[in-house]
Every structure is written in C-alpha cells, then in structure tokens.
Design a protein that fits this description.
single chain, about 270 residues, mainly alpha, two-stranded antiparallel ribbon, two-stranded antiparallel sheet
Length: about 270
Amino acid sequence: MPPQPPVEYAVAVERYLAASGLGAASRRVYRIALHTWTWALAGRPAPTGPERRRARPPVLPLARLDHPDTPARLLAATDRRAGEADPRTLNRELAILRAATSWWRAQDWIDTDPAAGLRPHTAHAAAPAPLTPEELHTLFALGAPLREQTLWRLLHESGATVEAVLALDVDDLDLPGRRTRPPGPPLRWRTGTARLLPLLLTGRTAGPLFLTDRRAPAATPAADRCPHTGRGRLSYRRTAELFTARTTALSPGGWTLRRLRPAARTPARRTPAP
C-alpha cells in the first residue's frame, strides 16, 4: 500500500529530496530553493539579505499548490525575485521548483501544475549603471569585514565576473605580478586589492580564495574546502546577499554586485589628417 500523501509542503519537500538521489550538498541547495517559494505561496513577503537564510519558512499545506491563485502568486514572486537575484540563480530555483512539482504530481499528491506558466528569465539587455567614483569612495569607506573589502575591490579593479572571482584558489594568484597565473586569460588588479590580499591570505597557502564563515559540510568536495580552516568556498548567493545588505545604508534596497564592474572604456577617436 503506497504511503499516505503528506499534508505539509515541508514534508513533501523532504520526501522529494530523499527520493532524488542527490548528494547532501545538492539537497541543501534544493531545500533552500524550495523553501524560498513558500513565502509567495503563503501570501507573505519573503525576507531579504542575511535574514533570508536564517528565517523559518511559514507552515504551508501541500494542497495550497492546487489553489486557483497559486500560479499568479508564483509569477509575481518570480518577478520580485528577478530584482534580487541574477538570471542564472533565478532559473536554477525555477528548475528546482518544476522538478519537485512534477514529482509530486507523479505521486498523485497534487493535481495541477502550478509552475506551468513560469518561464526562464534572461539577462536584461541594459546592464545596471556602474557605481560612480563618489559611490565607490563611500562603499570602500564602510566598516566591512576584510573578506568583503577584498572581494569588492577585486571585482571592481579586475572587471571580472563574480563567478570567476569566487572560483579563484589561493595558488591561482601571482601576488607580486598583481594577476592570476596561467592557464587562462589573466585576471589583473590594482593597488587597493594588492594591499588587502596578503592580509586575507594570512596563514593560508591553498584552497579557495574567498571562504564561508563556517566550516564546510562533510560532503563538500575537497576543491571547495580550505585545507587549513575547513571552511568552504563562498557562494554567489551569499556574496550577493551580503553586498545588498551592507549597501542598504547607502541606497534604499541596496546595490547589486553587477554595479561593481567598471564602466567600459570608450576608445579614443582619432582625428582625421587634414
């Protein structure tokens, strides 16, 4: 006799994850994504910044997914989430939701497909305006921890993507040359980053450059764990949350990481010969 359908959404999430065959780290990512949608389903504003990770999601009956207004609530939540997360993160969260609801329908736990009207998001054609020199001065004057100061400086001075910077390991760095080592195109930085990097690396000779605050879970791959401290590689999600939370004091709603990238230089125009 098949098990009784779960009453609560959170229980359905755990049963889905148990049957998914995912590793512990992936199950954690899926759980966070699936819990994120409960705020919209409950008709409540989701917490933002660091509070989002610590907040306990509302208790929700699984039958709420079959309510006629659920697709509209999810669509509105997707639009709000698009203003908080980069398109790749949002699309991953949407894919996780679709996979879970599809499995629940296959178990006959829900009747409808509440995610049917949700479509992948693409990056906006126009990039957000880079921070002005005055805004950068104010940002770098904040009393932020050394990790954040170094990360923000490196993102601005190198012009690299957040993913590329977070993927760096300690032994990728050529500190005297102020660049990364081969292979691959070099990532270069200037005085501000050069001053902070040695302080950030004190006592470390290997492992991820930017680390989490806590020790990594036991299932974390060795490549994403510091051999000296046991802490894990900092994630894009956490980096974005910290930046937005820190900059809410400078601008309502805070800034996004993409604004740290410097403005593209316009090539000088050559004056035609007389």
